[in-house]
Amino acid sequence: MExxxxxxxxxxELCGNNQGLISSCHHGLYEASLAEFYPHLDLDExxxxxxxxxxxxxxxxxxxxxxxxxxxxxxxxxxxxxxIGFPWLNKSRDISPELKQKYEKLNPFDGKDLRARLESVxxxxxxxxxxxxRDRVNNYVFECQYQDAKMARGGDNYKLVPxxxxxxxxxxxxxxxxxxxxxxxxxxxxPSLV
Length: 194
Hints:
- With 194 residues, this protein is mostly helical.
- It has one domain.
- It contains ten helices and two strands; from the N terminus they run ααααααααβαβα.
- It has a two-stranded parallel ribbon with strand order 1-2.
- Strand 1, helix 9 and strand 2 form a beta-alpha-beta unit.
- The mean pLDDT is 96.
């Protein structure tokens, strides 16, 4: 079965127009692509994992890394991240009746049998994801902030990432839609067969 591509509007509604959630989702997908996992995940699971894993790494850089021992299986990793990710997503989600059908098609597993789904992901892909999640997070800035941020760090731009998909000078009401467009673009490049 091939599922549809997520749209900007659907992602805005899925994240309840919450800038913290949609930006964390973007950053999580940017740093730890879930392309190999997406055929085995619902859209809800993808967004919850990307946002929560990134936010956890930002807030407490060593906590998730410490959890990621060599024996941690994909299911245990996702279950741990979902403890914060799903309450965050469930609190924010506000899907309109017009997008309800598309939303359901983007969540073909309905959250069931996660362990079995994740067991079908190649072990080396799981290890690669764990490796990316052990790394420190990037510092994301709007283009208008880049030079000042770089100078504040003494000219060091390591892990300083300008968000080129946002307006150079961001305006209120435009930031969340730009994040949603970019997240939709990223997920649309993932395999769509389930």
